[in-house]
Amino acid sequence: MKIIMLGAPGAGKGTQAKRIAEKFNIPHISTGDIFRANIKNGTELGKEAKKYMDEGQLVPDELTVRLLLDRVKNDDCKNGYVLDGFPRTIPQAEVLDRELEKLGEKVDYAVDVDVPDENIINRMSGRRACLKCGATYHLQYLKPKKDGICDSCGSELVLRDDDKPETVKKRLTVYHEQTQPLIDYYTKSRVLHTVDGTVDPDDVFKAIEEILR
Ligand code: AMP
Fold first, then answer.
1. What CATH superfamily is the domain 2-27+74-115+177-212?
2. Which atom of ligand 1 sits closest to the CA of residue 30?
3. Alpha-carbon distance 169 to 163, whole Å?
4. Is the model's pLDDT at 160 over the cut of 90?
5. What's the whole-model pTM score?
6. Is the CB of 5 under 6 A from ligand 1?
7. Which one of 50, 111, 188, 191 is least enclosed by Cβ atoms within 10 Å?
């Protein structure tokens, strides 16, 4: 089962992607997490990606596409995967479709987690992330057990540079211009499903389970 998560930054698609991955026992692949791991490890790719990420811009397709295609060739992807944050542009979606077609495969579901911009700005300013393991929390909606500390690995939680309000506004503009056209793209290929992302995360997940059942 190959699933793509769509939605604005901060819509909660990462949280839902992790739950889908757990439930269906498939890997959760987040290009954002891969870039952040590269930044943390000081790789050349990380250095290049950081320039764009800190500005709220997309990392160029040349850097992103190869990275993703290599990842989905791993053995753990044999039974499918859930992609979180990829594709983010029409050319990325086209490359993915072309590569899958060569293997006689296709995207099975594109799930759009729909949240209006006003809610997004409020949500992102409360988001806290663990830069070590990638877990994300929220000061209001998804509190860690101990303030400022990651439940999973015990590291300190921070407000990511790309979650700061000025950057969030920029990311929303980029989302509307470059990523939202994917809604039409996957509607045309008849795999798009939309869920209301403004409700409780447990209810968002129930709606997604209904779709994937
Ligand atoms: P995310 O954690 O998915 O919100 O991604 C954080 C940042 O990583 C984005 O704002 C982009 O700068 C970059 N990024 C992640 N995935 C992609 C992608 N598929 N294409 C281009 N840039 C990406």
1. P-loop containing nucleotide triphosphate hydrolases (3.40.50.300)
2. 3
3. 9
4. no
5. 0.88
6. no
7. 188
